[in-house]
Structures are given as structure tokens and as C-alpha cells.
Fold these 2 entries.
Entry 1:
Amino acid sequence: MHRECVFGVELAPWLANPARMRWLPYGPDALLIYFADGIGEEAFRRGRALAAALEKNPPRHLREYVPSFTSVLLEFEPGLPLDGNAIVKRLSNLMEAPAPEPVTREIPVRYDGPDLALVAEHAGLSQAEVVAAHAAPLYKVYILGFSPGFPYLGDLDPRLHTPRQPNPRLRVPAGSVAIGGEHTGIYPVAGPGGWNLIGRTDFTLFDPAAARGDNFRLLPGEQVRFVPVS
Amino acid sequence: MSAPVLQVLDAGLSATLQDQGRPGWRRYGVPVGGALDDHAASLANRLLGNPPWSAVLELMLQGARLQAVEDVWVAVTGALAGANFPFWRTLKLEKGQQLSFPRAQAGVWTYVAVEGGFAAPLFLDSASTLASAGLGRPVKSGDILCRDSDMPAFPPPGVKARVARFEDQRDYLNPPALRVFPGPQWADFAPEDREALFIQPWHTGPHSSRVGYRLEGEATIPPPPGQMISEPVRLGTIQVPESGRPIVLLRDGPTVGGYAKIGLVHPEDLSWLVQCRPGQEIMFRPA
């Protein structure tokens, strides 16, 4: 990847030129656009700016967009010519508008999960210290994925990074608050899963029966604070 | 309104209601869903004059038995399963008549459409079943399926019956070579590994499902070194995990993934791929 140097100091490319984005074709009718090099504050801000641009000023014939940590997929109506450079240039310009301020949601958690002890042992901390470390940060909702409404939350205290379970559970209850590698998340629906379960919440993340537009209660680009309850 | 038309005497190996899926929800982590073989499913609806978004019954391999509880027009397309009635055409069932699918012969997925389409609740704009997320549930033995009686019945004036064009009646034992576009990480694979995708036959492996089909071949394809940040993935993506055995992502598959994506099966050719039975041979060619 191209990098820029100023007086011998390498700048992160996004810092050197905030408008720079890379894109690759992904089939005849889609683009995969990279808007950041790594996961973090800058990627989170740029992702919000890009999503805002796509909502307010979508490129013509855009069918659907799917954001991820540092990239976004744009799918267009099939059978039309696609000018990736022009689309990305236009989005770069739109992204210069300030990113919207993230919404912050408080989520109550009972820290009594079956893997709390395991996470504590892995971290070399007491269970109370794990709870304190997990409830301290303001987390970023980077993406929803894995299952409907499942939020990948960062940035988790590195001491709490815990490998996934070698044998995933066949059924993790809905509302389980969990740690998988460097992320923390919440299982919106019951199902199989390999993350370490440290707590439970009654906060509903996904309600398939709710009115259209109210099905998902935690969205990419929002922030989360966990509030311990007993 | 809905009217009971078919009783499920036996759901067989798997039976679900599916339509064209729910595009637009992937950014919330919801797979697109829908009938895996969109060619066969949409043809069944078209024969009956149903709207393209009508729900059809998707049956896996064999074992299903359905009984008409009223006189009803149906159309059955897709995988042959030892049925004693014709596929790829409209068919009038008299009350009490049965459709049974005793023995998988060619293909994997069979589609049953009824006049007006099946009546089914919509979740996130679609009747497609995604039981793992609480969006509907599989069809079970004993269920009574209803047709949407607000939609026009078959046949329309001046029509006696309809048969699919011969070239649309597919022989799933002889799929064409499937067209593949380069995936986002195409350039990161070694040239000889990219070639391996096209020069050797692949077999669909066990543990394939509506989520994805695993491919097995003589040579494996080593993925590029290094860990990837998860990226959005598309329907039909050929991704390569550490095992070097590619996986083709299908309609109930993930919305994001961290494996290198070597290719994308042409959207029009996916309906051939999904009908390949475990062990069946397929070839890819550059699109």
C-alpha cells in the first residue's frame, strides 16, 4: 500500500489524505470500498460519515450497501455500466461534511455469565475487576453481523481479549453479553455461538415483530455503555 | 384472505417456505434468504401466473408427502425426487390427491407453487424462513398450508395449462461450467492457485447447507497469508478458509466475513450450483 512520509515520518495514509479511498470490483454490479486501514476511532468516524453520505446522497441505481469495519459494499442494479472512480470520488467529497455525532445507548447487564470466571482467569484479574474493565469504556458499534442485529463492539480493554471457545455452544440464550477475541457483543437471538458469556441483558436488540424501522435497537455508528446491575 | 389447500403428511428431510428473500436488511446482519434455486422457484410461480414475490415450498432431497385438502392448481419444479407426476408444468390436484417425493434422483431442491402463492406471514418484508433468527419456522408434518385467496386463481381465461419451455426444464446431472468473476482478493492468490480454481473439477462436500456449499477438489487453494479484517460478503462468493477448501456462500450465509474471497459465482449460474448433490462434479470457468 502507498504510504506518505513527512520528514522521514510515515503518516497513516488516511491522515495524509483523508479523502483517499481504495475500491475493488466485486462482481459485475458491485464495488467494495475501503475507507480505513485499521479498526479504531478514525475508521469509526469515517464509517459514520460514509454511511451518512450513502443515506443522504446515494449513488444512482444503488440497491443496497453493507458496511463493515473498514470497508463498505455497494451493490447496484445489474446490467448497468459502473464507474467506480467517479462513485468513490463523489463519496469522498460528500464525506468531508462532518460525521454525525454518535448516539449513545446505556445497556443494563447482570454480570453473572458462565464464562466470567474463565475470562477473569485468562486476564489474571478478579471477577469484579473484569466487570469494572468491561463496563468502563464507551463502546463503538462497528458492525452488525454474524446473526441479525449482533453488534461487534470495540474497543475492548486488551486485558479482556479472550479466545473464542474451542467448542461452540449449541445454544446461547438471547441477551447474552459475551467476549470473542478482541470484540465484545450481545447475542440478539438464541442460537449456537462460541463467544465467552460474561453476563445477560434484558435490552432487546432485535424484534422481528416490531413495526418496520423499529426492528433493530442498536445500529452501526452508535455507542454503547454497559451499566452493571444486580 | 387465505384458504387451506395442502396438508403436509410428511415434511421429508427439510421443508420451508421461501420467496425472493429480503434484500436491504444485510447491513443489520440479516442474510438475504429466499429460494436457493431462483430459476426453478420463479418458474413455478410464473407457470401459475403468480406474482414473482409469491412464496413457494422448498423441499430438500426426498421424503416429503403432501395431500390436497381442496381442488387446487400447483406447479412443481426443481430437483427430481421419484415423483409419479410431471414436473415443470401446471397440474390440477383433486381433493385427496397426493404429491410424494420418495427418492432423490437429480438435484437437491424441489419447489412447489400453488395458484395465488402460499399465504405466509412476512418478517422484514419477506416470507422466507430463517428459523435460526426466529423468522418463521420450518414446515412440519401435520401443517396445513394455505394459498393466498386474494390473488387470482389458475387458469386465467383462455388458458388450459402451461408447460415450461424445454430449455428451462433443467437436467441437474449435467450442469454447465459455472462462470466466476474475480473476488476482491483475487490478486492476492498465487497465479497457480487461481488457475487451480478453473482446471480441476470440484465436488460439493458434506456439511453443505443453505448457508454455503463446501467444495472439495484434488488440489487445495492456499489462502493468502495474514489475517484479514472482516469485510462485507455477497451471495455466491467463493471464499477460502485456512483449509484451502473453498466455500460458496449462499442465501442464508453470513453478511460479513474474514476469509479471502477468490471469486464470485455468476448470479445466473448459482441456481445450477445449489442443485449439485454431495459428491457431484462441477467445473468453473472465468466469466
Entry 2:
Amino acid sequence: MTDKQDDFRSFAVGAGPRLLRLARLLTGNWTDAQDLVQSTLLRCFTAWSRIRAAENPEAYACRVLIRLHVAGMRRVGHRREQLVASPPERPAPYTPFEQVEARTALEVALRSLPPRQRAVIVLRYYCDLSVTDIATTLGCSTGTVKSQAAKAMRTLRAGWPAGIL
Amino acid sequence: MNDELLRRELRAIVEDSPFDPAIIEHVVRSGRRRRMLYRSFAALAAAGFVAALAVVVVDFGSINAPGGPAQVTPGASGATSTRGAPESASPARTHEPGPTGPASPVPNAVVGIGYAFNLYTHCGIRYASFDSRNWVAFQPMPGIPDGWDNPYQSGTMTLVKADVARFAGPRGIVFNFIPTSKTIPVCH
């Protein structure tokens, strides 16, 4: 039992930051991202005997995370606004203004996407997965992935400053 | 379409990952609790299942246990032999009687419920043993109604009132029985 827990701990330490980045892109803020990662790790912990025997436990965890996110968004609805005590995102001081503006616009456009489209964009352009791998991760067909990607890109193009995408 | 720019911007958004390793200990603790909870539920469900199974087995055993008084009935050669309750019944909803032989007895019949019942017809329609009591036909019939089987006819016996039982056989033929304190005579 302790061996398994230590094994899980070392996995979580290694994969946690990467899962958190992925969750951040999916949820749009670090707070929800941390909650999502915690739920994902909890799922992984309860099934750790099976997961650690898998070829790539982190890929499994990514799948769990994305599916939890999509299912969670379905449950709570598409939250476009969130009240926070302080501005959650601050640009780095050295970042040029135009770049900050473009990045903020991208975030806003990304947040406006439905959860599945957002997952497709993140998996395609952040995780660099192939269409087939994305389809496997999301549990849908490659045709669905392509159509969702095309729709998402249209939305992103409309949301970003002209000429960037 | 500048895919590279999109990739770069997405990476830039999540450049600093404020991952707190303390979350892992929290997950492990919660996971242990959840696992114990699952195991408790599983143990509880298993215990419930075993208890339910035991009740069903005991119940089934009591239904199939030989009940009712033994009755003297004629053998094939005319000689008498002792059998366990040739006319016996079980609830029609759960048991269908065999076409030629006795079914499970019902020690305590409930008024208004039809029980599958095999009526002994070999010496006409006269007597029946039902509800741990002996019954005599209100209007006995020396022979066997047309289309009925010999020596048993399957049908439905209903306790219409506390002291009236009604046997309904095929072709809509019905016989009413009343309780008797007499021993059912041997069929010659």
C-alpha cells in the first residue's frame, strides 16, 4: 500500500505542474484549474493500481482531466464571468503592450469557446496531439475533432486582433 | 493561419505553473477516505445481498417442505398406499402445478387468492385437501367432467370465504367445497 502511495506521489509531483497548465488553459483561471487537477489526481489515486500498469499514466491522467472538465462544464453551464477579489491575471512587466493585448484577447476568445472546442484547441496547439489522438482522448470521431477545430478557429480569429491569426 | 503564434501564446499564458505539492497529500488523504467508504459500502451491500439470499432460501425451503396431513389414496393396482397430500397447492402467481401430479402445499391459504391446485378426480369430484384442512364438495359428482384429466386435474383453488373453497378447472367448470371434519375415505 505504501509503495503504491509513494509511487503515486512521485507521479503527481512530476505530472502535477503539466496537468495544472493544461487545466489552466481549459478552465481559464488558476483557481478552477487547481480544483480540476485535484479532482483528476483523486480519480487517478482511487484507480492507481490500474493506471500505473498503463503504458503512459500521464496521458491517462490528461484524458481524465479533459473529460472531467467537459462533464463539469456541462453540469454547471458555460460560465463566462467570474467574480474575484483581485485581478487574477497580470502581464509580466517586460511584455510589450501589443503582446499583452493580443494575449488577453486570445484568453477571452478561448474562454468564450464551448468546452469541447476549447479542449480540441488546447490539445492540438498546446499538447501538439494529432487529430486521431485528440479523438481518442475526447472519445469522439476524427471528423468531429476537425469540425470542432474549424469552428473554434473561426471564433478565435474573430476574437483576436485583426491580422494576427 | 499562424499556428506557431497560437502555440507560443498558449504556452505563454501558462508559463508559470503555481502547482502546490501540498495538494498531493490532500489527494492521498481524501483518496484513502474515499476508498474506505467504497469498501464499507461494498461490505454492506454484500452483507445485504447474503441476508436477502438467506431469507429467500429459507422461504423457498418452507414452501417446499412437506406439509399437510398424509392421505390414503389408491395405488395403481387398487391397493392402498400412503402419500403426502395428493391434492396440494401453491400460489398461482408463482407456481404452476404439474399437469398430472401434486404441487407444493399451501398450509395457510389467504382468502381471495387463487392457488394453483391439482384436484384428485379418480373417484369423482368429492373431496379435497387444501389449506391444511379436508373439504367436501357442496355438490359432489360421481364421475369426471368431460375433458378433465384422471387422476389429477390442475386448476385454481380459491378460499372464497373462511369456510368455502372454490376449485375452477378447464371449460369453466367450478366446484365449491366446504370444510369437513371427516377423514377423506379411500378411493376404491
